[in-house]
Amino acid sequence: MSDTTRWLLPNGIDELLPEQARRVEQCRRRLLDICAGWGYEYVVPPLVEFSDSLLVGLGADLDELTCKFADRETGKTLAVRADITPQVARIDAHSLGREGVTRLSYAGSTLKSVANSIPADRSPVQMGAEIFGSAEIAADVEIVDLLLSLVAQNGLSDLTFDIGHVAFCDLVLDATGLDAGQREAVLSLLARKATSDLDRFLMTLSDAQEREQVKLLASMHGGRDVIARAREGFPNVPGVQALIDELETVLASCDRDGNVNIYIDLTEAHGYRYHSGVVFALYARELGAAIAKGGRYDGVGEVFGRSRPATGFAIDLKAWSMLADLPDAEARFVLSPATNCMELLAKEADLRASGMVVIKALGKAIDPRCTQQLVRIEDKWQLKPVEKTNGS
User: pTM for the complete prediction?
Assistant: First the structure.
């Protein structure tokens, strides 16, 4: 590698400079504090695990995104997490092993082998909250309420809340005579919103009723009218009416909040394939990408010996911090001489305890953030305006 390229980072890997790092950390603290106020306990899963543990169960869907390497101590394969949700599910099912409802929150770095989002980011900082042990729709409502509370308390605006249900397509396709290959083709085309390709596929179906059902299924996305159209379009499909009832219950949370636009999409699932019920994503117009994803994923923990219903969400903290309305840093910066007398050290400690930032002077340069300095006047250390010198 030449000297001119040593500073380059891999594609999709970035570094957070002081201002961005401050915003990300400020968001992390605020979001976790809000979650704590709702009863969510903070956990810190490990960055690296044995791959056969990290990629079992939910993690199997993340295999292609996961970076792996050999453990020099054991010879086994280690893996860096690409998503923290499966780890938290393991903590609930195995490490904690509690009965009843458990609420957990987390925050940490992740790593992906390839970028699966635009703009490319292979090292997201993920923060999330999960509810384990409740299959009630009330748990889904709480998770959405919490996410929208985070939106409101962080001043985010112009967002779209995209909601769907992963079982809808399966229920509708179960009522048709499509074989497994045809079903997989339909689901793939719906996920890609490949309208023209879907039209060509429909021409291969000999049954007119099947064509109409699939065509109607493909139209199940848009505004609030999707709910009514789904009820009217599939009145006799088993399970559809109950599914729509669940969606309407969760959507009531959005109505109470009023800070987000609503988009209903019953034709695809968000996130990874482990979801099993209501799913949602929060999109920001400025970024053109999801800043949060979540939903229900029942059956977690089964591979750890305890099948547990669960629902939750994960936030992209770097993207979130770009949009959050954060207060400006209010700390005052004070320059202190590089003198280690006891009286000066005590004064510095008092100032720091009061919220000020005290920076020791090293060399002749004055930190440009400092507007005040500690000077000794009549045997006492006092604050005075910084005396700027020429060129400083």
Answer: 0.88
